[in-house]
Amino acid sequence: MRAAQVPVAMSAGFTPRPRLSFGLALPTGAESTAEYLDVVIEAERMPTVPDTSTWLLERVAPVLPPGLTFDAAVEVPVGAPSLQEVVVASTWELTLQATPGLGDGEELGRAVERVLRAPELPLARERKGVTSIDDVRPSIESLVPGRRHEDLHLTAVLMTEGRALRPAELMRTLLPECDPFEVLVRVLRTRQWIDDDGARRELLPAAGAPTSARGETIWTRPIPPPGLSPTPASPRALLTTI
Amino acid sequence: MTTTLPDLWEALEPLLGRVAKPARYIGCEVGAVVPRHGPGKVSWLLAYPDAYEVGQPNQGLQILFEILNERDDAVAERTYAPWTDLESLMRARSLPLFSVDTHRRAQEFDVLAFNLSSELVFTNVLNMIDLAGAPVRAEHRDESHPLVIVGGHAAFNPEPLADFIDAAVLGEGEEVVGAINEVLWRWKASGRRPGSRLGLLRELATVPAVYVPSMYDVTYDGPRLVAVTPRYSEVPAVVHKATVADLGQWPYPKSPMAPVTEVVHDRLAVEVFRGCTRGCRFCQAGMITRPVRERPAEQIASMVRSGLARTGYDQVSLTSLSTADLSDIGPVVQSLVADPTACGTPSVSLPSLRVDAFTVGLAAQVAGTRRSGLTFAPEAGSWRLRSVINKLITEEDLYSAVDAAYSQGWTRMKLYFLTGLPTEQDEDTLGIAELARRCVELGRRHTNRASVTVSLGGFVPKPHTPFQWFGQNTPRELRRKIDLLRGATERARGVQMRWHDPAASVAEGLASRGDRRVGRVIERVWRAGGVFQEWGEHFRLGRWEAAMAAEGLSIDWYVHRHREGDEVLPWSHLSAGLHHDFLWQDWQAALAGSGVEDCRWTPCYDCGVCTGYGLEHIVASPVPPAGGSQGTGQDLGRGAEVPVRLLSAAERAR
Predict the structure, then answer these.
(1) What stretches in chain A show pLDDT beneath 50?
(2) Is B313 touching A (CB cutoff 8 A)?
(3) How far apart are CA A233 and CA A237, in angstroms?
(4) Which one in A103, A232, B91, B294 has a CA-CA gap of 20 to 30 Å to B544?
């Protein structure tokens, strides 16, 4: 943002920090074509431009590291709910290596069926040295197994409210005998969902999404959410990694 | 260019989710030059034998990376020591060491060139050669393997690595890499024929500043080193260091990088001068980098401006061995803080602060309103001992610096000291506690929160310094002194103390002043799993002791023994330009407690460097900056007005 000369607002306090927030953290080692970033811009230092979103995308594009692109931006009013608050679920495309422990596709299908039918799924999870046993079944919305080339494939929609279920944790539930890191060869987040009056929609919905170099869908045409106030500006950028 | 080997990235990528800090291995730094491989180009893999976050900010490596990639006949990439978690995954899958830029296998490069900033990384060098798929011992490598070259400060005594490396470069690499590249280009163009390695090494041995250990025979008489003799007539008896005459001719890095993960020096670095003639006798960096060569002020300003714009950093470090010694440092700093970019005023950090009120004034200019800790390095607890080590800071200097700092809003002082220095007595050690106590006392006049942290390091004598003959203190003696000082500081209000592990100093001392026989010890420590030796969690002195015992070598003889004046030292055939007689006389002067002045501002005492190499100091001002004694012990108008504006309390609060 500094190299792009975007006047990002700073937090108050002894150690001011740029007011950027990614909402849901992407697990280490995972890829994503659907990351969102809230950027708070200081109106005073903002140059006069016809369209803040276009301006932001154009400024940032040349300075991003390889593999990172900003695809869309939209202004949201200051004080709008944070990404953390509005995102309720995300879609994951998981590529699984056909290891001996995993067996063939049928075995994965059976595991998926077992998990989806289970009334509850206790899972021991550790955080900051404290182990707790949580029922993770409510975190799993849907699981669709499949095959892509010679690899097995799983499309998962996981809820993000409360303590989100990570893809590696999902694998421990599905295939307790397998080392999730041996099995998961690719973890890709493709969508983040919000609840719009009972209807699921993407934060920045798009029509006719083109595909990235790796064949993933990316979104380009933002539709501003209703009730958008023109100033002060606070673009919400859709960030994708390909 | 196509490669016949399968893409390494495909095998590597799935492992990255399983290791700590995977961003260590992906490169992708903002601003990094993209290496362009091509037929006939000599390819260099520049290696830093420590973790990425330590090595990435290294300026030497970044400079050579750019200089080589600017050439039509060379290409360079970078690599760092993979952390132990990734290393075990790589070894389990037979994946080799790789470059972080394009993820090429190390064996696809013509040269594997290590930057050695310290001696404790030596075992990592062996580990990386091994991970590169090459035999660790140079004699077992052939034309199919990359050439292993080392450079950097710790390469000034490369003898402990002599069995493992093909060549060492002494001094500054900017010009030498070109000369080496030309020799390698001809060798590569002639087809790297079987049996051509010896000829190549012989030719490299004639390139100035290049030392090829295998071109020298070493003779011993019992434990004593008797001679190091060239094997061929064209091989020089003494190899001299390379020195860039004018830093202004080398405005590198031109394309500084901003990494995508946190690193140890996470800010833009601009080198403002090279070399230091303060003459601190313990300091190897000051001795081997003479003379002083300042970068022109306008070049500093333009490198800062363009570097900040390219990287997006909001902080710049003006680096050197003593940045407050730069001529016109005041105006230089002033112009930086008065030149806000679109993203506000850059914050300027001044490492290696000198101890005086002038320096504090500078620090006050750049520190903004956030003032927590300020670090000074008086190094010794008494004037007598500071005269021995030639760090000529008077107590008035220290107290005026500390008083100025507290009065300007700082609350915490960090004071660096060495222990185990030549002639050190317990009263010198206890003097540290007294200095710290008085500093807190001064601070309490300004703030109730005033505190001082004393950081104590064990002194390790280094080659090419007047202390190269000194027998290092035993860990037992160092521990006794640490305990002595702990006892004295325990009851002092506001004084905290930290210290370094004396055990690690033993291994560092062994590797610093070792000869070729220490090579087998390093190999044993490496084979026993001793990598990342400068990381406390990986260091165990027991491994080094066991390896020394197995080789029948004495730690006491190598580390704790005082050397004699006529002794052939393992690095006697390698020269940083300093006359043997100068170093010996300076050692004798040290023992007599007599200091020397800084020769950039006073007449030449002929240490040998300028006269021997036809160099001279390049400084913009022929007189030292005013204010304090400037650590020279000379009266430089102490008490005169400090030529910087100190902020009032009201301004600071803003």
Answers:
(1) 206-233, 241-242
(2) yes
(3) 12
(4) B91
Q: Which residue has the higher pLDDT, B349 or B497?
A: B497
Q: Is B623 helix (H, G, I), strand (E, B) or coil?
A: coil
Q: Is B498 exposed, middle or buried (0-12, 13-18, 19+ CB in 10 A)?
A: exposed
pLDDT (0 to 100) of residue B344: 67
- Residues constituting chain A: 242
**Of all residues in chain B, what percent are helix, strand and coil, respectively (each to 5)?**
40, 15, 45
- pLDDT at site B324: 87
The predicted model gives B141-153 an average pLDDT of 97
Nearest chain A residue to B341 by CA: give it.
A5
C-alpha to C-alpha distance for B634 and B626, rounded to whole angstroms: 12
Contact B312 A3 (CB under 8 A): yes
CB of B22 within 8 Å of any CB in chain A?
yes
Nearest CA in chain A to B25: A29
How far, in Å, CA of B559 to CA of B208, rounded?
31
Other CB atoms within a 10 A radius of the CB of residue B621 amount to: 13
What's B640's DSSP letter? S
B30 touches chain A (CB under 8 A): yes
Helices (H), B316-394: 329-337, 357-366, 383-388
| Bridge partners, A236 (sequence order) | A38, A74
**In this complex, how many residue pairs, one in chain A and one in chain B, have their CB atoms less than 8 Å apart?**
42
Rounded-to-integer distance, Cα B428 and Cα B473, Å = 15
Residue reference for tokens 């309390």: B649
Tell the burial category of B628 from Cβ atoms under 10 Å away from its Cβ (0-12, 13-18, 19+).
buried
- The total of other beta-carbon atoms located within 10 Å of residue B240's CB is 17
Contacts B314 to A, Cβ<8 Å = 2
Q: What's the predicted TM-score (pTM) here?
A: 0.90
Which pLDDT tens digit goes with each residue over A144-198? 998 877 788 899 999 988 888 999 999 999 988 888 877 888 889 999 998 888 8
**Nearest chain B residue to A3, by CA:** B312
